[in-house]
Amino acid sequence: MAKIFFCIDLGGTNCKIAVFDEEGTIIKSWKTSSKPFSNPENFLSAIKAELLRFEEFKSFSAISIGVPGLISADGVVVVSPNFPEWKELKVKQLIEQEFSCPVYVENDANLFVLGEGFAGSAKEYSSYVGITIGTGIGGGIVIDGRLLKGAKGMAGEIGHMVIHPAGPECGCGNKGCLEAYSSGLAMKRQMLQLTGLELEAIEIYGLAKRGDKKAQKVFEKSAYHLGIGIANIVNILDVPCIVIGGGISSAFDIMEESIRKGFREHTFKIHFDTVKILQSQLKDQSALYGAFSLIEKESS
After folding, report:
1. Domain check: are 88 and 138 in the same one?
2. How does pLDDT run across 90-117, given as a tens digit for each residue?
C-alpha cells in the first residue's frame, strides 16, 4: 500500500491541509478556519476531524504541522502569538498518542523556507534566506542545506532586525524594527498618516497599481526598507538567494525596484549582481511543501 502523508499549515486565520504521496506530490488539499484550533482543549478533536475528513485517507504514515510561534525541540508549542491560549501545548505528543504515527512540529516560517528549497524559488540553492511578509514579518535561514534554528529555536526573526533605533514603534515593543517599516500593518499605518484612510495592504496595492501617488509612496518606502534589511542579511550571512513570500509578496511587481535600491545602497558592490532576490513560486503552499520536506529530512 502506497504511503501518504498529512501536512498542515496552521495560520492565525486559516488552516491549510494537504495530503502528499511519497514523491512529494499533493494528492488533495483544502482550507478551513483556524478558529476550532484556538482552544487548546479542542485542538486535538479539531485536528482529528480534518485528518479523518476523507474516507480514502484514513491511513497515513506521518503528520507534519507548522504553527506560528516558539516550538521546542520535542514538539511543544511554548508560545504562539496567533493562539494566545496555547501555553506549553504538547502538540507532537498529543497527535502521536492519537494516531500512532510519527509527528513533526515546526515554526510555520521555517516550513515556508524549507518548502521554497524543496520545490520553490530556492531549489537550486543550498544556502538562502526566506522572508514572509504579511500582517507581520517572519523568516528562516538555510545554510549548506540545514535549517539554522539557534540556541533557543528563535533564529530567523528577521522582522525584528532594527533598521533605525529612532524609528516607529513595533508590536514587539522595540522601535525601528523592519516589521515596523515593511509589514502589512506598517503599510496600513503609513497610509493612514498620509491620507486619513484606514486601508488594508491589499487595498493600498490596488490603489498603487491604478496610479495613486500616495499608495505608491507607501510601497516604495516599505520596499526600500525591506531592501536595507536584505542588505543586512547578505552582509552577515553571504547567502546567494533571498526568497520573499507571504501575502504582501503578491505586490512584488511594484516593490522590486525599491527593494533592489535599498539593497544596493547598503551592501557591498560584489553582491549587486550575484545575489538573487526572488518572489516565492509556491505562493500559499510553501509551508505545506516545507512540512513534507521536514518529514523527508527527519525520517531519512
Report:
1. no
2. 999 999 999 999 999 999 999 999 999 9
